[in-house]
Amino acid sequence: MTLLAKQNAIHIEQLRKSYSEPSVGDVHYIIKDVDLVIKGGEFFILLGPSGCGKSTLLNMIAGFVSKSGGNLRVNDVEVNKPGRDRAVVFQQADSSLFPWLTVRQNVEFGLRMKKTPKEEQRLISDRYIRLVGLTGHEEKFPKELSGGMKQRVQLARVLANDPAILLMDEPFGALDAMTRRTMQKELVNIWRETHKTVIFVTHDIQEALLLGERIGIMSVGPSSNITDIYDNSLSYPRDVASQQFYNLYNTIQGHFEE
Amino acid sequence: MRWIEKKWVSVSLLWIAVLCIWQLGAVVYGPDVIPGPWSTLKGGQELLADGTLTKYIGISFYRVLVGWVLGSLVAIPVGLIIGKVNVIRIFAEPFLNFIRFIPPIAFITLFLVWFGIGEQSKIALIMYATFFIVVLNILTGVMSVEEDKIRSARSMGASEWQILLHVIVPATIPYIFTGVRIAMGTSYMAIIGAEMIASNEGVGYLIWNSRLFFRTDWIFVGLFCLGFMGFFTDRLLGWFGKKVLFRYGVVSVAGKRR
Ligand SMILES: Nc1ncnc2c1ncn2[C@@H]1O[C@H](COP(=O)(O)OP(=O)(O)OP(=O)(O)O)[C@@H](O)[C@H]1O
Ligand SMILES: [Mg+2]
């Protein structure tokens, strides 16, 4: 466990992001002086109000957005570009899936880029399509799928590349309550099977409590920061109706009402 | 009145009405000003009988096809590269936006001087007419590829070259197709202009030359040929787009029903 925890860990120190020119006197920071350590294999939640910079922080870890100061290391290597070790599940499946490819071809995309042998691609895509419950829909195009199914394709597509770290930006935000609940359960199962590090962005407190082991709270921007981290050691699958769940919910709710 | 809503009924009624108005015009203004349907048909027969019409249609069509295919073949890679490489785009965009206001016809004399009186100057003119339209459409297409698609491909390990080939090209296909289709129309306009000024064969030449004999019926034949040539090539292209490029989101505009 300790070895695993050291692997694929994320170290963030005094991390800053600004979109304004450094030469301008009064620099406007989106996030400022973020300190955070995420252990390998951990399910970490980033919770915060809209516009506080959750996506910005996630995109920096993904390597899509450059930092303006501080350190950001994954596996002890400074992040400066996207990598196969960090997969991203985007909020909008429509803008991130490839509509000209079938479900199977979408899932095999990363493997095809890597020139994995065809038969192996097939085995891997079969496995992850089954894992997300899309068996029988392999030959469909994304536009023939429902919102929840598209999100599953996204999940299968990143899992097929076997990334150590899963970065998820409000992936279930656009789904109806029931589909969302199913997807949340499946995600927990997948995480427990695969031991990947997960960073999951949401602004839904219940979702945060259902999924993560730790919940980092971001303050309102600008110059946003992670102000508090709550541990959530409730065992999975979690019971929304339990007293502990209710207590934790109130604590976090109270945090935002201050 | 259900029968009038049947498509073939309304379409044939429309055509009969058009023919009637046309015939009326011919009667009122005399066949020298407006040749009626019948005299146009006779004129057409005359031109068909000695083989000039088929020859001219063939020649005009050949010029358009060669220039248009070559122009598109050059424009597609150029457009993709201008769109993908920021540095090139910054330099090329003002230039493209300047050139696109200069219609091909304006270049006829210059092209004759540069490429000679033969086929080259005509084909070069069609290439010019095609090139800028296709490039500008591709630019729009490349610019509107969603960032999430490129980001997800990149984090699945795709190289810049693979991103161009497997994300940008397929995502841009509808724009390429639209560009190529519009360019077909401008190519016809360009070739007729060129044939009027500097050719002794082709549909443009027929239309222009008929004035010497005051054969307005031949002019009408020429106009109809142009209309049909454009109509059929466009339909053919539309059909091809719908059948072959369907998965890339190409829809045939003409065949689209609501
Ligand atoms: N490319 C950019 N240029 C300038 N400002 C930006 C850019 N991207 C984001 N911002 C700003 O950064 C701030 C944080 O944005 P971000 O998208 O990270 O918020 P968020 O916490 O993910 O919000 P939400 O929950 O609504 O998705 C916002 O004020 C936004 O205006
Ligand atoms: Mg966001």
From TrEMBL, chain A:
<dbReference type="InterPro" id="IPR003439">
    <property type="entry name" value="ABC_transporter-like_ATP-bd"/>
</dbReference>
<dbReference type="GO" id="GO:0005524">
    <property type="term" value="F:ATP binding"/>
</dbReference>
<dbReference type="InterPro" id="IPR017871">
    <property type="entry name" value="ABC_transporter-like_CS"/>
</dbReference>
<dbReference type="InterPro" id="IPR027417">
    <property type="entry name" value="P-loop_NTPase"/>
</dbReference>
<dbReference type="GO" id="GO:0016887">
    <property type="term" value="F:ATP hydrolysis activity"/>
</dbReference>
<dbReference type="InterPro" id="IPR050166">
    <property type="entry name" value="ABC_transporter_ATP-bind"/>
</dbReference>
<keyword id="KW-0547">Nucleotide-binding</keyword>
<dbReference type="InterPro" id="IPR003593">
    <property type="entry name" value="AAA+_ATPase"/>
</dbReference>
<feature type="domain" description="ABC transporter">
    <location>
        <begin position="10"/>
        <end position="245"/>
    </location>
</feature>
<protein>
    <submittedName>
        <fullName>Nitrate ABC transporter ATP-binding protein</fullName>
    </submittedName>
</protein>
<dbReference type="Pfam" id="PF00005">
    <property type="entry name" value="ABC_tran"/>
</dbReference>
<keyword id="KW-0067">ATP-binding</keyword>
<keyword id="KW-0813">Transport</keyword>
Automatic annotation (TrEMBL), chain B:
<keyword id="KW-1133">Transmembrane helix</keyword>
<protein>
    <submittedName>
        <fullName>Nitrate ABC transporter permease</fullName>
    </submittedName>
</protein>
<dbReference type="InterPro" id="IPR035906">
    <property type="entry name" value="MetI-like_sf"/>
</dbReference>
<feature type="transmembrane region" description="Helical">
    <location>
        <begin position="95"/>
        <end position="117"/>
    </location>
</feature>
<keyword id="KW-0813">Transport</keyword>
<feature type="transmembrane region" description="Helical">
    <location>
        <begin position="61"/>
        <end position="83"/>
    </location>
</feature>
<comment type="similarity">
    <text>Belongs to the binding-protein-dependent transport system permease family.</text>
</comment>
<dbReference type="GO" id="GO:0005886">
    <property type="term" value="C:plasma membrane"/>
</dbReference>
<feature type="transmembrane region" description="Helical">
    <location>
        <begin position="12"/>
        <end position="30"/>
    </location>
</feature>
<feature type="transmembrane region" description="Helical">
    <location>
        <begin position="218"/>
        <end position="237"/>
    </location>
</feature>
<dbReference type="Pfam" id="PF00528">
    <property type="entry name" value="BPD_transp_1"/>
</dbReference>
<keyword id="KW-1003">Cell membrane</keyword>
<feature type="transmembrane region" description="Helical">
    <location>
        <begin position="163"/>
        <end position="184"/>
    </location>
</feature>
<dbReference type="InterPro" id="IPR000515">
    <property type="entry name" value="MetI-like"/>
</dbReference>
<dbReference type="GO" id="GO:0042918">
    <property type="term" value="P:alkanesulfonate transmembrane transport"/>
</dbReference>
<keyword id="KW-0472">Membrane</keyword>
<feature type="domain" description="ABC transmembrane type-1">
    <location>
        <begin position="57"/>
        <end position="237"/>
    </location>
</feature>
<keyword id="KW-0812">Transmembrane</keyword>
<feature type="transmembrane region" description="Helical">
    <location>
        <begin position="123"/>
        <end position="142"/>
    </location>
</feature>
